[in-house]
Amino acid sequence: MRDSIRADESRLAEIAVLRGHILNYVKTRDIYQAYKASGFSKGYFETHRQALTLHKAAKEAFNQRDLKKLPRIRDLNAEYAQLLERKKKNYAEYRQKKAQMQDWLMAQKIVSVMLDEKEQKETEIKRQEERKTPEHGQ
Known about the structure:
Layout: H1 2-37, H2 42-47, H3 49-64, H4 73-132
Helix pairs in contact: 1-3, 1-4
């Protein structure tokens, strides 16, 4: 269950990063096209350095993921919502099972302590009886 939650959290983080890159790419596409039309002018680059850097980072992220076609934001948002709902449900179930396990461990510990106390009492009673009975042969 914990692994499922971690996998969902990982995918949620991936989707969030991918959405950010897609938004940056879309916002800076016109600036990049103008930069390309300018013949990759240094002056144009310096003027729009931040936007062009965001565009380049987004393209690199897409290349790392081997994305030929960008996923739609709507689809990513739907997947994100679905994963988030599943994570919440799994986490609630995980907390319940964890509480049950802790209760079970506590009960096990109590039984163990009680058995140890009983054993100690029995051992003490045997010692006292051995002291009371005279040894044979004296």
